[in-house]
Amino acid sequence: xxxxxxxxxxxxxxxxxxxxxxxxxxxxxxxxxxxxxxxxxxxxxxxxxxxxxxxxxxxxxxxxxxxxxxxxxxxxxxxxxxxxxxxxxxxxxxxxxxxxxxxxxxxxxxxxxxxxxxxxxxxxxxxxxxxxxxxxxxxxxxxxxxxxxxxxxxxxxxxxxxxxxxxxxxxxxxxxxxxxxxxxxxxxx
Length: 189
Prior knowledge:
Blueprint: H1 10-14, H2 22-36, H3 46-59, H4 62-80, H5 91-112, H6 121-128, H7 132-144, E1 148-150, E2 156-158, H8 160-168, H9 173-180
Antiparallel strand pairs: 1-2
């Protein structure tokens, strides 16, 4: 169905979280299948219907879902990768890049999921490829400046001042590419 190098995010296709219970996946599948079924004269769409069926075949089966989750985690990390962690080895410029990376991830998370705009420390570490200990200084600085907020569990979200900071300080090319990336694997929503 997909070219060898393409990746379709079946969680996005079904509009569910990667943490969704199988019952939720089944329920959403039934709703979307009914909506996109080619016999539905108002909202029928054969391509979307086929994509919904394929997503359910993968995510509705525990074995294929486990295989997909490995691939999904790898692709998600690449999609969010803002800079090469190997280049961010130390010094003031490195710290600035890390702060920009944190804000970029939080900005993208808020844009993609305004209802749940936070990113956990573990996810931030994974997405940026930087150990949590190296992120602590940047978290402190960004919080003190009012550019992010932190929850009791350590998760972070960008503030309006953080968005304005990114707007005023320009977005480098890697950041623009990240934000231009489509939310789903097929480029539609």
